[in-house]
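hey can u run this one w/ 5-phosphoarabinonic acid bound, need the structure tokens asap thx
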Amino acid sequence: MTLEIDYSNAMLDNVGEMGLKLSDIKDLQGRAGEIHQDLTRRRKEGKLPFYDLPYQNITRIMKVSCKCEDQPIENVVVLGIGGSALGARALAKALLPPYHEVGDAAYRAGLPRLFVADNVDPDYFTGLLSVLDLGRTRFVAISKSGGTAEVMSQFLIARDKLIRKFGEEGYRQRMVAITDQEKGYLRDIVQRDGLESYPVPPGVGGRFSVMTPVGLIPAYMAGVDVVALLRGAANMDKACSEPDILANPAYLLAAILYLADVKLKRNVLVMMPYASSLLEFAEWFQQLWAESLGKAIDLNGGPANVCATPVRSLGATDQHSQLQLYMEGPRDKLIVFIKPNEFIERGTIPEAFGDVEGVGYLGGHSLSELIRAEAKASETALAKAGRPNIRLDVTRVDGDNLGRLMYMCEVATLFAGGLYNVNPLDQPGVEMGKKFAFSMMGRKGYDAEKTEVEEWDKKKVKYIL
Ligand code: PA5
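ok here u go:
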């Protein structure tokens, strides 16, 4: 077993009338066949290039410099947001040793720490730059469009700091850019400043770009085994070539998530790994599912307003925070557990207080036994309460399995786009907000938006303390 989808707790037999029938899934086979044909055709035509990323040549990626001024670097800082940040963070958290970023150089085997900005919170961003030894830091500025306000602001601040401290050449040594091969403001800046750069392959959107330089460069610099990641993805690709919905893991996953939403009215999708290393994976999935499928208009131009809201949760932590709600709150959730079976574990819980009934029983067991027992306990309790859940079992969290998981989720998202009849590759809903933000920051050509924001502001009803 490397990856298993156990969906028994989403089925009628285990959760009663709140569950699905096998025939519900089988009934989707007709549509699944059409979606499969459409995806296969578009892949062959080169219109879905993310599918073939597992087979890319990564020789150049693996030559990215982890030095500046002939000194090994200590830090890599990703300047990016959304799809240009979440993949690298998920890879690093899952595949580097725990607390890689706080361990000393020996703990990190001399590899750099990885920090992913993913925001423009002024205190945190400037705080990050002031806490790092910039002389031993390389920045990776990532923007497919090359014009995202948050990323370009991060870039301008880092660039200015580097030029002031180390001069033009020192800046060039410490900045790498990943952007569209030909167009966009960041591409122009790469030419003007003479920066080392890598392309975001054409046709691969931010949230599908984890296996391009966007995710691979920062992860590789910090020591992630990117070869294993791509190998796992290639293995999953083979499993995903099946048109049969019950035999194709990505189609099966998508079908269950889709049916839970539209048939069972479970419009909150909780991704709950029982491994701290996978929390950022859940965050990555959350963006992938939400931004791809939450759409107002369907492929025929009609109204859609679809997609369950994905949220992330962490086992066992959130048993003490969210589980009460999942058990007894609104019947609007499908819980997707992810359960690794092996951990890199050292030792067992010490045997002590054998005479203290509520504590002594723990001695001699391992923490991995405990966390797996907690996962099993939660899924069983939820099922018994008629709360559907499914479980993705992975042997362990490693590059190969993460590659499988990520690739499966990407294909599942595309396939779910077909089921929901929406375009999973665009994000029109974020455009209006971007334009309003541009207008408030004084960008030329956005006067109408500025007026609109000002007019809207007059309508506010406020409570002021
Ligand atoms: O997935 C997406 O397309 C988005 O989340 C983008 O990655 C995000 O908006 C950043 O865009 P860009 O890489 O163009 O700066």
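The pocket of 5-phosphoarabinonic acid is lined by residues 81-84, 143-145, 148, 151, 205-207, 291, 427 (CB under 6 Å). anyway lmk if its weird
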